[in-house]
Amino acid sequence: MSQKKITGGKLPMPPAKVACLHCRTARTRCNGEQPCYGCKIRDRVCSYIPSRRGGSRRKRVQKEHVTEDEISRSPPTQQVLTLESIEHLVIPGAGLKRPETIEQQGQSYRKDKTLSIASPAGNHGARVYEKEEEILNAYYIFIHPYFPILPPPKSRSTPDCPIPWPLAETKKALPKLSESPLSLALSAILALIPLPQEARCASAACVSFRKSLAQRFVQAALQRVDADSEFLDFISDLHVGSAAVAGKVTVPRDPLHPQAPVELESILALLLLSNYEHTERANLLKMTARASQALIIAKNMSLHRLGLENDTFSEARRRAWWMTYFCAHLCSLVRQSACLNIDDDSQFTTPYPRLECDPEAWLIFLDALRVGVASVKFTSSYNEQLHSHADMSAVNEQMKLLDRWVLQVSNRAESYVPVSGSVELDPAYESATAQVMRRLARIRLSRSFITPIPCRSRIQTNSFSHTTAREFASIDFKPFRILPSSARITVISRP
């Protein structure tokens, strides 16, 4: 069979749309038959694979500019968790990223061309309040379920009524500032919460504006704490809010909360500011400084040596001390070092605060924190033993005690019995606060299980007992000690 000559520059037959594999490799003409002419005369298997080439050309679609609002509304992409992705959680700082400085925050909303400072206040603004009653009401709505530093509310919260502070009045003086450091610290935290009518709350300009406004409230709160420290130094070994204190110290203002004495407001403000430096600015040094100052003031007031008395201010005093204890231990947990020196728990006689719907929530909440700090302490001791090539048998026993303690607290955190619907609606029972405390405890306990220690042992849950904490506390770890005690378990379970 002879091939026809090509005349006039045209092929005698159009080329095949798909060539066989052998013709593709040899770069020869294929007639597209089965078998093709080349494979037939060479007596070989002719096979075809559809080509991805050819077809009509697709027009390139130009990518449109994506605004910040579209990015904020887009659903988050699902990330695959790997060991490298969570490795930063076991280093000091727990993976916190240092945000922009205060100066950079001020430049962000000035450079944003999409946001005019002449915009109406209802569209672009920050959250401020005129009256202290409104600040206290907003605290119970937004902050109290997650950071219960004040006694439970006596009645339901009223609708939130903030005043939009417009972006155009950035450099103007703030509204009439309160003389209470607690009120100013609460205003700083509340200023970070976007307004419900804010259309571009996730834009860089609005976020930076809220951060800058919050920082102004923080500075004002610190000034009031320094002013209060002039008379707080005179309170020593006296019950806060008692007649003896009132006779020696005169506070020139009314308390923000009717059940929290004015002497506690500096401590509570420092606790809020410590949490602010941790979560908002990732400044661990200032976080520790605020918590340390609150701890010194609380011990100077002997808040850690209170008894079982029940008066108007007893619940506020208990919450002030144990939230100070929480923030101090949190600094050690985040920084993974003994940054604050806290005495043996056996020296603390102050009962735990009371949650009507869940009497054990406070104990579980604090025990989970103790487990986290003990895990950090154990890791440090483990590394020292490993580098010194010492006998690891004692370390293995310590590991078993730690795992036993973790599983014990985890079992108690999971054994929550929901209360009735009528109780959940009563704000005095703080059902939402109890649920948050147990969930935070479970999160903290789950992180204790990913402590980077090989060959963690597992103990059966039927061997749990409240002596686990004391057994683990009896081990003298370095570089610091934490001695959790179960002495107040009977107090929290009293009728």
From TrEMBL:
Residues 52-76 are annotated as: Disordered. Residues 19-48 form the Zn(2)-C6 fungal-type domain. Keywords: Nucleus. Residues 63-72 have a biased composition (Basic and acidic residues). The keyword Nucleus applies. InterPro entries: Zn2-C6_fun-type_DNA-bd_sf, Zn2Cys6_DnaBD. GO terms for molecular function: DNA-binding transcription factor activity, RNA polymerase II-specific; zinc ion binding. PANTHER family: ZN(II)2CYS6 TRANSCRIPTION FACTOR (EUROFUNG) (PTHR47431:SF5), ZN(II)2CYS6 TRANSCRIPTION FACTOR (EUROFUNG)-RELATED (PTHR47431). This is Zn(2)-C6 fungal-type domain-containing protein. It comes from Trichoderma gamsii. The lineage of its organism: Eukaryota, Fungi, Dikarya, Ascomycota, Pezizomycotina.
